[in-house]
Amino acid sequence: MTLETMDFAALRARLEDAPGVIEALLGALPAAGLHFRDEPGSWTPFEVLCHVTDAEEHNWIPRVRSFVEGDGSGGLPPFDREAGLRRYAEVPIDKLIAEFARRRRESLAAFDALALQPADFARQARHPELGTVTLGQLIATWVTHDHAHAAQICRALVRCYGAGAGPWQAFFRYLREG
Q: What is the pLDDT of residues 100-132, one digit of tens each?
């Protein structure tokens, strides 16, 4: 999908759906699943939720505003990808799920208040690592980020519960990898 073919209303709808997806995956999960690390260096499902919750406050909307308020010559604010793991480490899962949902609602309200037009998605800014990027690319990345982390949670849960699948493990790619 290119900037010209993106349906930003559909992307926004995916952003709105994400808290429900996360709640469905993690809401009633026992501690063994929440804190399962499927490979060294990977995040547990709980840590993924800590990260995406933190990104709602410190990444997406601050960067969107940089595009809208800047002239294209400024840089995007940096984002510490692991700060949320520290910030939310002691928050109970039900409260963290609710916090992610609340922050996402706030993010979408702020996004909607900007009343962006199609031409705005071509606005440019400098990413601290990637160089010149567009607002449209950031929005697509926001949606991709949600989907990638939902997949990461699913992969961890497949590996957590799949350990008991016996010979059926052969049917699951995530159980054959890593």
A: 999 999 999 999 999 999 899 999 999 989 999
Domain that holds residue 154: 3-176
Sign for the CA dihedral angle at 178, 44, 77, 97 comes to positive
Tell me the CATH number at 20: 1.20.120.450
DSSP letters along 119-134, please? GGGG-EEEETTTEEEE
Residue type, 22: I
Q: What percent of the chain has pLDDT over 70?
A: 94
- In angstroms, the CA 136 to CA 134 distance is 5
Tell me the whole-structure pTM to 2 decimals: 0.93
Q: Pull the structure tokens for residue 145.
A: 């980020």
Gap between the Cα atoms of 177 and 169, Å rounded = 11
Taking CA atoms, 6 is separated from 132, 139, 159, 175, in Å, by 19, 10, 34, 34
